[in-house]
Amino acid sequence: MQVRVNSELNRLFKFSPNELMTTKDFLEKIIWQLYLNYNVFIYPMYKDGKYTGFYPLDPKVVTFKQDELNRMFVEMRFANGETYTLPYDNLIHLRLRYSVNEVMGGGMNGQPDNEALVKVLQTNDTVIQGLDKAIKTSLQIRGVYKYGTLVDEEKLINETKRFEKRIESGKTGILPLDVKGEYIPLKVDPKVIDKDTMEFLEMKVLKWFGVSLPILTGDFTDEQYQAFYEKTIEPLVISLGQAFSKTIFSEEKLNHGNEIVFYPQKLLFTNVKNKIAVADILGNRGALTNNALLELFGYPPYQGGDERYMSLNYVDVNIANQYQLNKARMEGHRIE
Q1: pTM beyond 0.90, yes or no
Q2: For 279-293, what is each residue's pLDDT tens digit?
Q3: Pairing, β 181-185 against β 143-147
C-alpha cells in the first residue's frame, strides 16, 4: 500500500526545494544541466534530523576517488577556484546516456559526446550561409552595359548616370539605347537547398533531443504527445524518483517501501477530452477529491472540498466476494 506522508520532503518538493528556487525553477535547472553536461549533482542539506533544502551544483571539474575501505568520494572544483570533496552517497547524481564511463553519463570522458550532432549543425550552418549568399547574389549585378568606344573616367560616370536615368524613366520595360552601347543581361541562378533537405537537417537535430516537430510547434495530436511522453519525459520522471530515493533514504527505509515519486499527471492530461475521461474514471471511483477535480479543470478549491465521492455502481472486491458467498449460501449451494 502506498501512503503519502506529510513531511518536510513534501513541503520542499511542492513549493521550494531551496530558498533561491521554486519547484519549477529547480526542475528546469537540473534538466537543463542534465542535457548540457549529461550529469547533474544535487546536494541535500540535512540539519537537526531533517532535510532543509536541495541544491543543484555546477562544478567545472569532477574527480572520483576511493579510500582504503572502497568508499567513493567526489572532488568538485568550481568556477571560483574552490575545491570540495564530498562522500558520493551524500549526493544525488543524475546521468544521461550512461554508457562507457563507469560513473559518469556521456562518453568515455564523462562529457557529452556530440560529435554526430556537431556535424549536422555544421551542415545546417553551411546551408544557411549559402542561402544568405544566394539572396545577396540575386540582388546584385543583373547585366553589363557594353560601350562601342573607349571612354575616359569622367565620361564613364556621366554615361552611367544617363543609363540609370533611362532605367528609371522606362515604363514599358524596354530600355532605349543608342547605337554606341549594348546591354548584355547576366543570368543569375543561385542554387538553394530544397525543402526536403532542410526538413531532413531539422529533424536530425530534433531527434537527437527526442523532440518531434509537432511537439516543438505545439501542433500535436494525442498520439504524438503520448509518444513524446513515453520516449522522452517518462524516462526522466522515473530516473528522478530513483536517484532521489537512493540518496535520501537509508537502505532500511528503502526496504520498508519509502521512495520519492514524481507524479506526471499534469503532463499527461493536456486537453479537455482527456481531463473529462480522467474525471469520469477516477472521480466515479472515489480516487479524486472534489478539489482535485476542480484543479484538473483549472478552478480554485473550496473549503470542505477534500471529500471523496464514488458511484454506487462500484464495490470493494472483498465485499463483492463476501456478497457472492452469502448469496450462494442463501440459494443452498454447497461451497467447497
Answers
A1: no
A2: 888 888 788 888 888
A3: antiparallel
